Amino acid sequence: MLTVLIVSCAGSKQRVTKKHLDKQLNENIYVNMFNGILIFDPISGDTLYQKNARKYFTPASNTKIFTLYAGLKYLPEKMPALEYIHWQDTLYFSGMADPSQLHPQFNDSTVIKFLQQQNSPVLVPRSSMDEPWAPGWAWEDYDSYYSPDRHSLPLYGNVAKIWYSDSLRVIPKVFKDDLVPTTGREKRLQDKNTFFYPLGSADTLVIPYKTSDSLTLQLLEKAVGKKIGTAANFPVADKKKLFSIPTDSIYREMMIESDNFLAEQLLLAASLTVGDTLNSDVLRKKLLEEELAELRDPPRWVDGSGLSRYNLFTPESMVRVLHRMYREVPRERLLSWFPAGGVSGTLEDWFGTDNAPYIYAKTGSLGNNFCLSGYLITKSGKVLIFSYMNNHFKTPSSEVKTAMQAVLAYIRDTY
After folding, report:
1. pTM
2. d(Cα 73, Cα 67) in Å, to the nearest integer?
3. Which Gene3D superfamilies does the entry mention (predicted)?
């Protein structure tokens, strides 16, 4: 009798929830846009609410949830930085796509210190099936801070930091002769590392530089302080690996700050666990066909960051991957990777309360699109998993977020 009563009460609550949210999700703001939502209880296995949960959406940076899962499955606890062989007093080495070397956030110098200890370092450029940009990236973003090139041995985050202090300054310093004061809006020539700084500006600019193996060699020699040779191939011998910082620190920065560069490099690094060539496409296919073969709505997944508008994911697929991580990763560690509503990263100004955060979720923003997927902690202490995706709106994104807050706060207070 008690079981019947409990089931009846649960069913009644879900009916009330459906009626309430159906009304909220039919307000005027939603008339000329497309949205989908799935709210899931990982303990009971119940779907508490769903609308268009199996429809495909442009996910924007929600894509990074899949990139995070790829890193968890294929990368070790510390980032592989170099692959190398000592051969006849010479060190042959190749990059392994580690994004942390001399990165302004991590400022790791594991590779630099290692090479400084070598008598005759020789760089073996690594072959790649990935272009510096992924399919579907906007070409006009080439000089925007959020679109650095992908590369096998990135340095300084593949960006130049430029500011004015008695004279124009730049890091890396190799670009000091490539700075041009300007009155225009262009930040860099499209096909050349010539950078422009606005006259009279007090801002610090962060501008992607155009990568190449020759520039990587130049940057390395400057940082290491010695000549570095090049070779087309490694000698025939067993390779060793040099590791740098914990991957958790990269996951956290990627997710909380929505760092596109870190996301792209993580996929490249993970691809080297399944082959010697950088090939993120092979890595994505392997993850979807093996680890995530149960997905009912296989995504179209073309990059690590979500910059591409070619990506297509469903709310259900997002929730399934979030559920897998919830089962496989301790709660404190898992939530530490996500922006906290009203507290950190891309959610610092949204989804907050006067008490502890109740939303730990990844944002996804592109023009006319805003998505949010992650974990919701209810007033009763339940952890729910959700994906809430909004595409093709022309209203200000702040209005969409306000409407989303009302929906998620209702779920928080109801369960």
Report:
1. 0.95
2. 10
3. DD-peptidase/beta-lactamase superfamily (3.40.710.10)
pLDDT tens for 139-152 read: 999 999 999 999 99
Sheet holding 159-164, edge to edge: 168-171, 159-164, 205-208
Per the structure, the count of domains in the chain is: 2
Rounded to 5, what percent of the chain is helix, strand, coil?
35, 25, 40
What six digits make up the tokens of 134? 């992924």
Asked whether the CA dihedral 244, 250, 251, 252 is positive or negative, the reply is positive
Angle between helices 397-414 and 2-24 (to 10 degrees): 160
CA-wise closest residue to 152 among 185, 129, 179, 134:
129
Quick check: is 120 in a domain? yes
Q: How confident is the model at residue 12 (pLDDT cuts 50, 70, 90)?
A: confident
Tell me the residue range of the domain where 120 lies. 83-245
Interstrand relation of 195-198 and 159-164 (parallel, antiparallel or unpaired)? unpaired
Are 116 and 169 within one domain? yes
Chain-centre distance of CA 268, in angstroms?
12
- pLDDT value at residue 5: 36
> Do 184 and 319 belong together in one domain?
no
Residues 280 and 386 grouped into a single domain: yes
Q: How open is the CA angle 375-379-384, to the nearest 5 degrees? A: 25
241 in the same domain as 98: yes
